[in-house]
Recover the amino acids of this structure.
């Protein structure tokens, strides 16, 4: 099996210590998770920051402080910030975050950008101008169709093709059947994110198909048997073990 790029998502926007005691919330906890996950085999970190009440935040100052600390602590680890709205933030808030943080890499939901197309155009132009690599979040076929249309209409820059496909749902309910890219056609760089206990199974399939993978507590707190992972690094290490073809 090819070695995919592994991005770890250690906390997310909605989970708390009530969900898992080792969910990293503070800068110190994020730093520890970053170091142990990198040692376990993660190439990059999908970063969420929280406010003083532990709520999801797009505060530029908190992002800059955390990114600086991560670069000092784990300089070889890539950092991707999230612009997730989490039902709290507007496209204007997302634009301001990207402008003020100037990250090297950011994930941006096509569905969320579609809420304000005038600002969406400015978001993608801003990212191109300041050198922020964009990873488009696609939740379903409609999102994929939007992305194709935006590429055709030159709303996106030619290089803004990276995407992450989402399988499953954050909040329970029936889970849709996984749909992987058609390998008979040319594919730009893509990554898979899978919610739920079958996370590693789907990520291994994505790696077989040439995709990169995102793993971590934002997506799954337990393994396929329902056993909780001790921490993010344990999940990363188990995935690396699986991708190498080692027996369980």
């Amino acid at each position: 099996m090819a070695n995919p790029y592994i991005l770890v998502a250690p906390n997310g926007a909605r989970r708390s210590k009530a969900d898992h005691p080792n969910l990293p919330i503070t800068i110190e906890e994020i730093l520890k998770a970053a170091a142990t996950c990198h040692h376990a085999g993660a190439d990059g970190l999908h970063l969420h920051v929280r406010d003083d009440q532990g709520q999801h935040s797009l505060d530029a100052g908190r992002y800059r402080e955390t990114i600086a600390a991560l670069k000092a602590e784990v300089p070889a680890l890539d950092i991707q910030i999230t612009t997730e709205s989490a039902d709290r933030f507007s496209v204007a808030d997302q634009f301001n975050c990207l402008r003020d943080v100037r990250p090297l890499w950011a994930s941006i939901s096509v569905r969320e950008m579609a809420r304000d197309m005038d600002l969406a155009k400015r978001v993608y132009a801003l990212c191109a101008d300041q050198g922020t690599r964009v990873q488009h979040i696609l939740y379903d076929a409609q999102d994929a169709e939007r992305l194709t249309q935006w590429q055709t209409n030159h709303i996106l820059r030619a290089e803004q093709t990276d995407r992450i496909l989402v399988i499953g749902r954050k909040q329970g309910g029936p889970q849709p059947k996984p749909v992987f890219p058609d390998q008979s056609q040319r594919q730009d760089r893509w990554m898979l994110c899978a919610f739920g206990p079958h996370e590693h199974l789907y990520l291994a399939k994505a790696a077989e198909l040439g995709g990169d993978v995102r793993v971590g507590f934002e997506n799954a707190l337990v393994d396929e048997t329902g056993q909780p992972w001790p921490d993010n690094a344990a999940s990363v290490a188990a995935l690396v073990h699986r991708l190498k073809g080692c027996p369980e």
The chain has one domain: 6-243.
